[in-house]
Design brief:
There is one protein chain. This protein is α/β, with parallel strands linked by helices. It has 21 helices and 16 strands. The strands form 4 sheets. It has a 6-stranded mixed beta sheet with strand order 13-12-9-16-14-15. It has a 4-stranded antiparallel beta sheet with strand order 2-3-1-4. A 4-stranded parallel beta sheet has the order 6-5-7-8, with helices on both faces. Helix 17 links the parallel strand 7 and strand 8. The chain starts with 7 loop residues before the first helix and ends with a strand.
Length: about 550
């Protein structure tokens, strides 16, 4: 049976199918991150962006093809996270423009919408880079225009379009040397193909069911950081455990706990079931589990208590002032210590995010709306958040200014350069200049084997990054940190600040400080508790 056009009912199914397929494959997309660091998040960001689009679609009362496309554009614009999410939102925006007020989509209209999507995304990026999702979108659209009049069948048309998308994706390492060096294809382009394949599956009548993964289980502290108040925590106990030698499957256990809490993840193999649930009765959950097999690795955290302890150690955000002031600030970062530093520097709103959890455009706008100031300055402090901040600037009616800080040290230096008595133009110039006067180092661990910059890196190696490059690796955190700092420091430097993360004890950080002072005796060396996850140390050299 030939499908000559897509109506509103099918278009909605295709959007939902596309979203489900991307969600099921987000971990694979995340794994394509060029650097083998534990915060590869392209798939996660694209998935969250698309989920915002689907949420907007599901809220529609009138669901014509054009309205569905508009809703997808609106939802993805506000929900965009990370550079990949922002670019994806622009693809949705351009696609909606190409659809306009259409009631049906045929191959010709689809091809024109694909081209509009690619053009809109390219225009949204100041310096488009080939070998990325942009290239895949453009070459796919060109192929669609080339073949759209050769067949009336939407299924055959989309199959050919996806073939071209895969060819384009396979060529990305030839266009972008860093991909070739890391032996990966572009993650964003892969995510785009997941969306197209999910949409095609729905068009063929295949329902893609959302799969659950243990990747969805995050640390309780990170879950707690997502709450704005204790009252938002409806189910207090974060409960995790495994059922060993399970007599029945996880599909049979899941219905027993579905109405007993939220944030439920229940996955398993033949004889092992892993469970994560927020509940108010952990004992009840465990009593049901014990009938399935042996319970091991039990972990129960009181999230309300953790929230109260967290609030004690971190100052509250500044209350909204009724009197308008000249300047306000929004800063983004992760870690209790990092948050306190920015509050001490008079930042009005701090958004928890960065590695593994980029805030959305809407998150940034919500923070901005709580500040009563003539000029509001945003410090992204992460290269993957700058586009979302700039998109917030475009969507907000307030006077927003984005300082393109890519690291926490850059954000701190920018705030120190601010002068309350200066004009907005003077302050922007001074804050941007301050970024160039600070060097950033980071120490973390590798999540996969890779070869980069002549280094043969193995999974779980300690790796040291100096600005954008991995410069050394090994098995010892302190050893790699010292080697990194030696490469960062020269005779012109005067200050080294070491922000230690939540995996490092204070005494360990003090030991590192003493050893740094031995070879960098011309510099003042400071250690500061950052509390950041994943990164043992963030190092600032000025």
């Amino acid at each position: 049976m030939i499908i000559k056009y897509i109506d509103n009912v099918m278009f909605k199914k295709m959007m939902i199918g596309a979203a489900a397929n991307l969600e099921n494959n987000k971990s694979q997309v995340d794994s394509l991150n060029v650097f083998p660091v534990p915060d590869g998040d392209t798939g996660t960001n694209m998935n969250l962006t698309v989920q915002s689009a689907v949420k907007e679609i599901n809220s529609l009362e009138e669901s014509s093809v054009g309205k569905i496309a508009e809703a997808a554009a609106k939802g993805s614009l506000m929900g965009a996270r990370g550079n990949s999410g922002v670019i994806l939102s622009q693809l949705f925006r351009g696609f909606a423009k190409g659809i306009a007020d259409a009631n049906q989509i045929n191959p010709r209209l689809a091809a024109e919408a694909f081209k509009s999507a690619a053009n809109t995304a390219y225009k949204a990026v100041m310096k488009p880079i080939e070998g990325t999702i942009l290239t895949v979108a453009r070459e796919t659209a060109d192929k669609a225009l080339e073949i759209c009049d050769k067949s009336e069948d939407m299924v055959l048309f989309l199959e050919e379009v996806i073939k071209e998308a895969k060819i384009s994706l396979d060529k990305t390492p030839e266009l972008l040397p860093v991909l070739k060096q890391a032996e990966v294809v572009d993650a964003g382009g892969k995510g785009l193909i997941c969306l197209l394949e999910g949409a095609l599956a729905a068009l063929k009548g295949v329902e893609i069911k959302r799969e659950q993964s243990t990747d969805e289980i995050v640390e309780t502290q990170q879950e707690v950081s997502a709450y704005g108040s204790e009252d938002e925590i409806v189910f207090a106990y974060c409960t995790e455990f495994m059922i060993k030698n399970a007599k029945k499957s996880h599909e049979q256990f899941l219905p027993l706990i579905m109405d007993k809490g939220d944030s439920i993840v229940c996955v398993g193999t033949d004889d092992i079931i892993k469970v994560h649930i927020h509940t108010n009765n952990p004992g009840l959950i465990l009593s049901k589990a014990v009938t399935f097999g042996e319970i091991i690795n039990i972990k129960i955290d009181n999230m309300k208590e953790q929230f109260r302890n967290r609030k004690k150690s971190v100052p509250e955000q500044a209350p909204v002032s009724t009197e308008k002031k000249d300047y306000g600030f929004v800063s983004i970062g992760f870690g209790e210590g990092i948050q306190k530093i920015f509050y001490d520097l008079k930042v009005d709103a701090f958004i928890s995010g960065g590695q593994t959890m980029n805030p959305s455009t809407e998150d940034i706008i919500e923070a901005v709306n709580k500040i009563n100031a003539e000029h509001i300055i945003i410090l992204p402090n992460n290269s993957n958040i700058i586009l979302a901040a700039q998109q917030a600037k475009e969507l907000s009616e307030k006077n927003l200014h984005v300082i393109p800080t890519k690291t926490i040290p850059q954000g701190v230096s920018a705030m120190l350069a601010f002068n309350e008595d200066g004009s907005i133009e003077e302050n922007i110039a001074d804050m941007i200049a301050a970024i160039d006067n600070v060097k950033t180092g980071q120490v973390t661990y590798a999540v996969r084997d890779t070869a980069m910059n002549g280094l043969d890196i193995k999974k779980d190696d300690i790796i040291a990054l100096f600005d954008k490059d991995i410069v050394n690796h090994g098995s010892d955190v302190e050893e790699q940190s010292l080697e990194l700092i030696k490469k960062m420091v020269d005779d012109d430097n005067f200050l080294i600040t070491i922000f230690y993360g939540d995996m490092i004890e204070e005494e360990t950080a003090k030991s590192l400080k003493e050893k740094v002072e031995e070879f960098a005796n011309q510099c003042d060396v400071e250690i500061v508790y950052g509390g950041q996850p994943l990164y043992y140390y963030i190092i600032s050299v000025e």
